[in-house]
Amino acid sequence: MKKHSLSTRLWHWVNAIAIIVLFMTGLNISNAHRHLYWGHYGFDAGDAWLHVIRFPGWATIPGHYNLAVARDWHITMAWPFGLGVLFIWVAMLWNGHFRRNLMTAPKDWTPGAVIASLKAHSGPGAGHAHGYNPVQKILYGGVFGVLLPMMLLTGLAISPGVSGFAPWLVDVFGGRQSARSLHFIAAWGIFGFFVIHILLALTDWRLILEMFTGGKRVGAAPPTPPQPEPAPAAEEGAPAHG
Amino acid sequence: MVDLPRRSLLAGIAALGASACAKINDSEAAGSLFKAAEDGHRVLHRALAGKQGLAKEFRPDQRSPTFRGNGSVTVADPFYQEQLAKGFPDWKLEVRGLVEKPLALGLADLKALPQRIQITRHDCVEGWSAIGEWQGVQLGALLDAAKVKESAKFIVFRCADTLYGRDYYESIDMVDAYHPQTIIAHSLNSEPLPEKNGAPLRMRIERQLGYKQAKYVKAIEAVTSFAQIGQGGGGFWEDVAGYQWYAGV
């Protein structure tokens, strides 16, 4: 039994490329109008709730201001990103990854569980714990359940072509300019996750390698319990880092 | 701790990615990839919305207090300026190209036709939005009056303004041309169009971005292809900057 299923690994790397390109082209697009608003309309900097900095060339794709090229990449990478979010959710529900590793129980949300998670994660032998602890479940759940779908849905809501069939989607977010603001906020949320994820992965290079090879489930219970698949006793190894 | 080989590996991957991006950016492969992605969005939007799916319309109290003018906000042409000062008494909108009955309509002619009023949101490619009430004539009705030919595949809008020394123009396909909210507007918020918003006539194509909403419209031309017009991109910004022809994303 692999630690990371093929669907997880495939999606992980396709999505990694997609979000890097989407984020860096998104910063280029942000430079076109550096003010964010709430509501349906907004064009006057005086009404903005946030004035965004001009992102420098090293942070953007392309490396100079070019709205057309940035939009070409953004619109293109929206496909693997959007379809990928749908794919990974179907795969996670199908293969039990969601139920096994991400779904939380009420007890996971107690302060005690959070403190225990943090202690286990920083003490000796951290990184070799079995399974996901409550904090990891909550953070990963927040990424899969909130940030990724929000990026996709706010991106759709900003598109005028979508208003022809899902005007309610724009209203759900409180208007197009609200959707645009939330698109920006969720992008930085994903960026924050991305930084922590990479820092933690770099603490043990085998974690990165395993995302290519699939790795092995370590510390699994004896392979004999006669339970139906997916075997609840088969604990995850240490996919835990961020 | 980060050891060196791993860091160089990552740097290598990043560099590979960056140079790959830079290389394929200008290549034909990238061009067709971008076009495929753009077409994919258009096909998906059309499949989900149908040809007639309406963009959201707003209540009068939801309008923005003003309506921003962007791109061309004035027209240098002396005839235009003279007409602007007089209220466009001699301005003619031509309907021409692949039509059996070419038309030349004055503002009074257009106002005598059945009108559509819609309060819609205008989304600029830069990211901002404004909401205003537009009044005008459905493009489909004009095309019917001019008896547009079956061979027409696109409608091109010829404009009086110039930017960077070029004539502004835009184009849409027949699905958007016959969309109920595609109108040639003469009024904004119950007033004649101000110069900055495209006086005397501008297009409203409500399911696409602002650069498709041609202003200062002089002529509507039915064509089979826009490959021979301008640089062949189907519009001013498409030619000059490489903007997407389908501006629904």
Topology:
The complex is a heterodimer of chains A (242) and B (249).
Chain A: H1 6-30, E1 35-36, E2 50-51, H2 67-95, H3 97-102, H4 111-122, H5 134-158, H6 167-172, H7 176-201, H8 205-213
Antiparallel strand pairs in A: 1-2
Chain B: H1 4-25, H2 28-49, H3 78-86, E1 93-97, E2 103-105, H4 107-112, E3 116-123, E4 129-138, H5 139-145, E5 154-163, E6 166-173, H6 174-177, E7 183-188, E8 191-192, E9 202-204, E10 217-223, H7 236-241
Parallel strand pairs in B: 1-10
Antiparallel strand pairs in B: 1-2, 3-4, 4-7, 5-6, 5-10, 7-8, 7-9
Could you explain how this protein is built, in words?
The complex is a heterodimer of chains A (242) and B (249). Chain A has 242 residues and is mainly α. Chain A has one domain (6-213): Transmembrane di-heme cytochromes, Chain C (Fumarate Reductase Cytochrome B subunit, Up-down Bundle), CATH 1.20.950.20. Chain A is built from eight helices and two strands; from the N terminus they run αββααααααα. Chain A has helices at 6-30, 67-95, 97-102, 111-122, 134-158, 167-172, 176-201, 205-213; strands at residues 35-36, 50-51. A two-stranded antiparallel ribbon of chain A has the order 1-2. In chain A, helix 1 runs antiparallel to helix 2 (67-95) and helix 2 (67-95) crosses helix 5. The longest helix of chain A is centred in the middle third of the chain and has 29 residues, at 67-95. The radius of gyration of chain A is 20 Å and the shape is globular. Chain A starts with 5 loop residues before the first helix and ends in a 29-residue tail after the last helix. Mean pLDDT of chain A is 87; it is low at 221-242. By secondary structure, chain B is an alpha+beta fold. Chain B has two domains: 1-50, no CATH class; 56-241, Sulfite Oxidase, Chain A, domain 2. Chain B contains seven helices and ten strands. In chain B, the strands form two sheets. In chain B, strands 2-1-10-5-6 form a five-stranded mixed beta sheet. In chain B, strands 3, 4, 7, 8 and 9 form a five-stranded antiparallel beta sheet that branches. The longest helix of chain B is centred in the N-terminal third of the chain and has 22 residues, at 4-25. The N and C termini of chain B lie far apart (43 Å). Residues 1-10 of chain B have low confidence and may be disordered.
